[in-house]
Write a structure and sequence with these properties.
743 residues, alpha/beta, seven-stranded parallel beta sheet, six-stranded parallel beta sheet, binds adenosine-5'-diphosphate, binds zinc ion
Length: 743
């Protein structure tokens, strides 16, 4: 068999090994990096050619090989460096390379669409049109007007003609007379930008800390990761912008990663004002066509700056110049199902394989990132002052022990709100629970409305009069009677944002309030409308979940209050305090960003809690130092490394059987691969914190190691061994490396 006809293809199946296919002799041999359609069982799948194979493995019978069905690309779909990146991801996350390739493509490319930009059509004046006298058309007024228009503007987009009220019949007639024609707009040369595309007037004079940061980032054009640690409002965005200036001057591209709801119109317009270059935004509201279009523009060097959320990390660039990850600690960078990657970590690998600088920014870096900076792997750059002369906010803990609360508001807080509102400022109240109330119960018999399919209570939504499980989406009208005793005395327990809004409207009838949570922003465009109205001062009281905490810039907010933090202080999740501290700082960062000093109030039953005291007095980094020491002692990340094996099934006994297999298989492997100096540890199998969700039973096993390479070797071996057992095929199980949510 000659090497020209044999291919290695990464196919999107759970099996991690590549597959061999033949290229029929009457078909052109696909290049490495091209998509091919292949038969797989009874299906046809789109795979990626990863190699031309010289010799077949002895174990494979050549007569059993199948042929590819078609080739979708003439040239490699992604840059060659992507093979390294995606292979790394496949090994690190223990996930099939074929699936990863598939997920790294926009949806339309997965479905077999061609990877070419749709040509843009335009109307153009012909040579004949140029010399034709307007008088010749005097009996066709509409055509005459069109010709006159085109002689003034020889190239017009179809939309421009429409906007100028030229109708189809006149266009058609002029086309038939050979005066105008529809032509393809020529594609501009790639990466046609330089320092002239930077709007110098928009630039701010950097303060000394910012200037040092920009210089340190720009001292290398090769790989280096910088951690820009800057309190909220310290001018991190200005540092990104000035770092990108160099990239643009060199005719290269920059990829800017932002959290899911951090892509505000304000941020976008800052980039657009600064750079007169094509910018592509890849966000969740795009349709498949728009997403593919943006992806292709980046790949072909027709977009200079690409701003996007998690999956944008897979956007190819023709001339990569820099990657920026803003708010690097944000949980939305981690994909929480199937291929459970963290885009922040992939950014490090991508920057290093493409040999370009990476900048991560945060006011509250996650502990893994701080640890890497401590180890000297990342260059640490700090911004300690608020940039625009804004003072930092003052902090206050409100002890709510024994107090009478109104929908969660203490009398002190209500007083404070009044104080700030009466001075014409805005206040922001933060409660991380949407809906009216987190539970519905019967006053007579104690019945609680709980979901039949999950270990969770129904949340009451008063406005549309339904109860809903927030874990599986199950929804019913609010019952009139208790299903247990028939009583009509059904009451709600606890407070959600909807109820809080209701109470606040009663307490402050003279002021307008707005609620920002997943319920109130479901309609497309609703969030933007509310944010604009807030900036317009249409609302004085802003109520929200953490959606409101991210990146938005409200200069008139002077008071920020967090209603309930106690649940996070006493959570079983070892990351809970880190997450709370991040949230606390992000939320506080909303107060007093302009010239008005801000105030932050926190309600708690535990004002003496060491963590709160530390955060309150000394800030996030002092807190992280203490909290990280605790992690080191407890042998937890970032010092130890963790992988979670998740198991799911509708049938409890299938899980029991699989648990037994895990026990039998893992024990000898742990001993073989671990050692005294490189210990490996197993915790579980045990039920997940939410044991039942959407009707399925859920269990988990934690594996921990002090050495990452041992953990990976172990997981690989475990994978192989488990697959040999029948019980592993009867349940759904998956591996989550570096889990951040254990629920
Ligand atoms: P961060 O991203 O760190 O939260 P921003 O970049 O949004 O902070 O900056 C906060 C505010 O400070 C913005 O209004 C910005 O225009 C302003 N700012 C940033 N750098 C400077 C500077 N060097 N001089 C004056 N104003 C600045
Ligand atoms: Zn009852
Ligand atoms: Zn449910």
């Amino acid at each position: 068999m000659t090497h020209e006809t044999l291919l290695e293809v990464a196919v999107p199946t759970p099996l991690t090994r590549p597959f061999n296919y033949l290229c029929p002799t009457d078909m052109k041999l696909p290049v490495i990096g091209a998509r091919v359609v292949v038969p797989f069982g009874s299906r046809e799948l789109t795979g990626m050619v990863t190699n031309h194979v010289a010799e077949l493995d002895d174990s494979i019978d050549p007569s059993k090989l199948k042929s590819i069905i078609s080739t979708l690309d003439d040239e490699p779909l992604q840059p060659p460096s992507f093979h390294k990146l995606l292979t790394w991801a496949s090994n690190y996350y223990h996930y099939s390379l074929g699936e990863i390739y598939n997920q790294s493509w926009p949806a339309l490319l997965r479905k077999g669409e061609a990877a070419t930009l749709q040509p843009v059509m335009q109307w153009q004046l012909t040579e004949q049109g140029k010399i034709t006298e307007l008088d010749e058309l005097k009996r066709a007024k509409k055509q005459q007007q069109l010709l006159a228009h085109m002689q003034q503007n020889p190239i017009q987009m179809p939309q421009q003609l429409k906007d100028s009220d030229f109708a189809a019949p006149a266009i058609k007639a002029c086309t038939e007379k050979g005066l105008i024609e529809l032509t393809e707009k020529p594609t501009p040369a790639p990466c046609l930008w330089n320092e002239d595309n930077i709007n110098q007037d928009d630039k701010l004079v950097l303060n000394p800390e910012q200037a040092i940061a920009v210089a340190a980032i720009n001292n290398k054009t090769t790989y280096q990761t910088s951690l820009l640690l800057g309190i909220t409002g310290s001018g991190k965005t200005e540092v990104y912008l000035q770092a990108i200036e160099r990239v643009i001057s060199e005719g290269k591209q920059a990829l800017v990663m932002v959290p899911e709801i951090g892509l505000t119109p304000q941020t976008l317009s800052r980039f657009q004002r600064r750079f007169n270059v094509p910018i592509v935004f890849l966000h969740s509201a795009l349709n498949d066509k728009e997403r593919l279009d943006g992806w292709l523009k980046a790949k072909q060097g027709l977009a200079a700056i690409i701003i996007g959320t998690r999956s944008a990390i897979f956007t190819p660039m023709l001339k990569p110049g820099m990657i920026i990850v803003d708010e690097e600690h944000d949980g939305s960078f981690k994909q929480q199902d199937t291929f459970r990657y963290n885009a922040r970590d992939l950014a490090v690998v991508r920057a290093s394989t493409e040999n370009i600088p990476l900048v991560m920014g945060s006011a509250t870096p996650c502990f893994e990132t701080i640890h890497n900076a401590d180890l000297g792997k990342y260059q640490l750059l700090t911004l300690t002052k608020r940039a625009a002369n804004a003072s930092t906010a003052s902090h206050q803990l409100i002890d709510i022990k024994g107090l009478q609360l109104q929908s969660g508001l203490s009398p002190q807080l209500i007083e404070l709100m009044r104080h700030h509102l009466d001075r014409g400022n805005q206040v922001m109240i933060f409660l991380n629970r949407r809906g009216y109330a987190p539970a519905l119960l019967c006053h007579e018999c104690g019945w609680i409305g709980d979901c039949q399919r999950c270990d969770a209570n129904y949340t009451v939504h008063q406005q549309y009069r339904y109860i809903q499980c927030h874990h599986c989406g199950d929804q019913h009208p609010i019952p009139y009677q208790c299903p247990g005793c028939g009583s009509t005395q059904l009451v709600t327990a606890g407070v959600g944002t909807e109820q809080l809004e209701h109470t606040i409207n009663e307490l402050f009838p003279k002021f307008n309030s707005v609620r920002i949570d997943r319920d109130s922003t479901r309609r497309k465009g609703a969030l933007d409308e509310s944010l604009n109205a807030i900036n317009n001062n249409d609302y004085q009281i802003l109520i929200g979940t953490q959606m409101l905490a991210k990146g938005h810039h409200f200069p008139d907010v002077t008071l920020v209050a967090i209603l309930d933090v106690d649940s996070a202080l006493f959570s079983g999740d070892f990351r809970a305090s880190e997450k709370l501290a991040q949230l606390y700082l992000q939320v506080s960062g909303r107060a007093g960003r302009a010239s008005k000093p801000g105030q932050v109030a926190l309600q708690t039953h535990h004002p003496e809690h060491a963590l709160l005291q530390l955060l309150n007095d000394k800030g996030y980094m002092a807190f992280s130092e203490v909290a990280m020491k605790e992690r080191r002692v407890a042998q937890l990340p970032p010092y130890w490394h963790m992988a979670l094996l998740r198991i799911e099934s509708h049938k409890g006994d299938l899980i029991t059987a699989f648990n037994q297999t895990i026990h039998d298989v893992a024990m000898p492997l742990l001993q073989q691969i671990g050692s005294k100096d490189h210990p490996l540890r197993q915790i579980g199998p045990m039920p997940s914190p939410m044991e039942r969700r959407a009707g399925k039973y859920r269990w988990q096993v934690i594996f921990e190691a002090s050495t990452r390479s041992r953990l990976h070797a172990f997981i690989d071996a475990l994978h192989t061994e488990l697959a040999k057992h029948k019980s592993s095929h009867k349940v759904r199980w998956s591996i989550d490396v570096d889990p951040i949510d254990m629920i």
